[in-house]
Each structure stands twice: as C-alpha cells, then as structure tokens.
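Hi C.,

You asked whether I'd gotten around to modeling the 211-residue construct. I have! Everything is below, sequence then structure, no commentary in between.
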Amino acid sequence: MEDNLIYKGLRKKLVETLKQKGIHSEPVLAAIEKVPRHLFVNKGLEKLAYEDQALPISEGQTISQPYTVAFQTQLLQIEKGDKVLEIGTGSGYQAAILAEMGARVFTIERIHQLFLDSQARLNFLGYKVHQFYGDGYLGKAAYAPFNKIIVTAGAKEIPQMLVEQLAAGGRMVIPVGDHTHEMTLIEKNENNQITITKHGQFIFVPFVKGK
C-alpha cells in the first residue's frame, strides 16, 4: 500500500471537480486532497478511486461518492477539536477525512469484518480514531455529548437516541427516507431546541439496527 505522485495528482483533479459541484469549504477540500482514497477501496479498483463515484467494498457495502463525503462533511462545519460521532465506519474513509480535519472521531461499525479492516487501515495510516463494533442506532452514550454526529447510511427516521447525544450548539447530518434519502441537518441550539433542514436527495445503503 503506497501513495505516489500519480495519485496525488488525481486527488488535485478530484478537488477541482468537487469545487465545480459547489463544495467550497477549504478545510474539507484540503482533507480530500490529503487522504489517499485509493487505499480505502477494494484491490483492483484503485484506478477508479479518484473518480467522483461510489465504489463497492467488502460485505456488500460501498464507499460513498467523494461528493457525498464532502457534502456531508461541509454541512457538519467541523472545527478542530470537535468531538464527532460517526455511524457506519465502512472502509474508514469518512473517519480519516474527519481526523485529517482535526476532529476527535468516535466511529461505530455493525459489520465485524469491516470493523477489523477499517481498524487496520486507519492504524496503518496513522489516524487516531476511536473505533467500536456495535449498533449505531444506540450511538455511544458513554462518550456523549458530541459536537457533531454524522450518519453514513440511509435511515427511515431520525433516531432519537442520537439526537439526545448531540451537544447543545451541535450539528447532526443524516440521510433520511425510504429509497432515496433526503440529506437532513439537525441543529441543537444552546437551549437544546431542535431545528431540522433538508439539503437535497442522495442514495445510501440502508441504516440497519443491531450488529
């Protein structure tokens, strides 16, 4: 597993593509230019890693399209030192982006093989991420509250338990719906009042309870 000038050049091109599609957050774009996405995809698919498309990973799951990763991350408005809960580690790519941006990342994966694979990958790349094997619907109450929460699978409804684990002043981004998913932003103000806004349609693998 290695990075090289070709992959670095492809990442620069990907950043330009994302800018054209409306991603404007400099910290998000800088993280995407830094994190070697080709190390998070299945062997044989490395050449496609910097196309703006979702790709299959093991266990019938996918690594999200770079635009989707960038869009969700931009909505979160990550600040250095933010305590972030990610539901659905998958390949570990989104966790790496968050860690690259200076967040303290807590991530939960319900599929054991993906948990093990992403743990090895993130450790190899030197990203210090708190990883858990378990049911994302439950969140991680022992480590709450979180400044930001990101869900990387499509939920039928907003899990109340996750909203409760969001800190006052926090933001949670979750795709909600049945077949297509509406990117939903939940903001909790300093008085713990909730505002919900919708930010366009995306397609995700389903958010499944249990492990």
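If it helps when you're writing up: Helices lie at 5-20, 26-34, 66-76, 93-100, 112-125, 160-164.

Thanks,
B.
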